[in-house]
Amino acid sequence: MEEGVGGEEYLFKIVVIGDSAVGKSNLLSRFARDEFDLHSKATIGVEFQTQVVDIDGKEVKAQVWDTAGQERFRAVTSAYYRGAVGALIVYDISRRTTFESIKRWLDELNTHCDTTTARMLVGNKSDLENIRDVSVEEGKRLAEEEGMFFIETSALDSTNVKEAFQIVIRAIYNNSRRKVL
Ligand code: GDP
Ligand code: MG
User: Fold this and answer.
1) Which numbered atom of ligand 1 lies nearest the CA of 26?
2) What sections of the chain are H helices per DSSP?
3) ipTM over 0.95 threshold
4) Which 3 state secondary structure label does DSSP give 129?
5) Which of 33, 39, 40 has the most ligand 1 atoms within 8 A of CB, as the residue to mutate?
6) 23 CA distance to ligand 2 centroid (A)?
7) Which pLDDT tens digit goes with each residue over 70-84?
8) Ligand found nearest the CA of 39
9) pTM assigned to the model
10) Closest ligand to 20 CA?
11) Helix (H) or strand (E) holding 64
């Protein structure tokens, strides 16, 4: 989703996907409002937040969508993915099953979005080092195999959250510029 390509205005739709309780909603609220919720509930219904990011002095609007609980029922709709040019695919580094689900999320993304969609594999909850269940190397390897960026984050202590979004937004921005030129 781009507005005024060639002009000065950019609006990019980014989806956040991954198993229930990996921290998707908290990553989004940390990014958009710098808030963290210790007891966040999986509310049902699609929600998004719009955040303005500065990329090389250009105002870029990121419209970041949250599954808002749909994923618990394996019922993320095609409308959710429509027009997405970026995706954060999130697992919880302290729960291996959420890492094992990444392939399924990638398959789903690939049925709705083409390969130009910028992808970031996100290992969230890096603050839980003492109960780590997925190594950094495993995350890196999977990301490399599947052509994704990779980062570990903590929505709890804010580590790398802005960076995760910014890297994806910059990649989308560079892609869209290439298309224009
Ligand atoms: P979602 O279902 O993927 O949207 O996950 P939520 O954002 O609702 O988070 C699920 C649970 O994990 C909540 O209890 C959060 O407080 C917790 N959580 C989210 N991010 C982190 C994190 O980075 N570190 C830790 N320790 N807990 C987190
Ligand atoms: Mg949620």
Assistant:
1) 7
2) 24-33, 78-81, 96-100, 102-112, 136-145, 161-180
3) yes
4) helix
5) 40
6) 7
7) 887 777 888 899 999
8) 1
9) 0.91
10) 1
11) strand 58-66
